[in-house]
From TrEMBL:
Protein name: Protein kinase domain-containing protein
Gene3D superfamilies referenced in this protein's UniProt entry, alphabetically: Transferase(Phosphotransferase) domain 1
Length: 121
């Protein structure tokens, strides 16, 4: 996952969370990462204008050569206090940089999935 954050470093603080630190214990295999707080998830529904912001953020991730592969409302955060970049797409754990998988053809279903997201309730 740190490779994904490295590839998308120019989007940190804008469209994805800022990665402060990451590491992995060589012997036991567990890892840790510390990311910035990006507000609340959109699980309860879209705020006005957030779907457009989410489309822009996902398009920027795609332009960086990354396919998210886990688009859901729980992975889209919104922070009312942040007036410059209020929306972040989080949880890049399933993301891929594989150039055979990251194609325009693969990006279209992800964008469609974003459009079809509905709140839990």
């Amino acid at each position: 996952m740190s490779l994904t954050y490295h590839r998308l470093g120019y989007l940190q603080r804008g469209y994805i969370p800022r990665l402060f630190i990451h590491g992995k214990h060589r012997r036991y295999g567990f890892g840790i990462q510390v990311l910035e707080d990006c507000g609340e998830t959109l699980e309860n529904g879209w705020h006005p204008g957030t779907k457009k912001l989410a489309r822009i953020a996902l398009a920027k991730i795609h332009e960086g050569g990354v396919l998210h592969r886990d688009i859901s409302l729980r992975n889209i955060n919104y922070d009312l206090q942040n007036t410059l970049f209020p929306l972040r797409i989080v949880d890049l754990g399933e993301a891929t940089l594989d150039t055979e998988l990251v194609t325009g053809e693969a990006m279209q279903p992800e964008l469609k999935q974003l459009e079809e997201l509905r709140p839990i309730a």
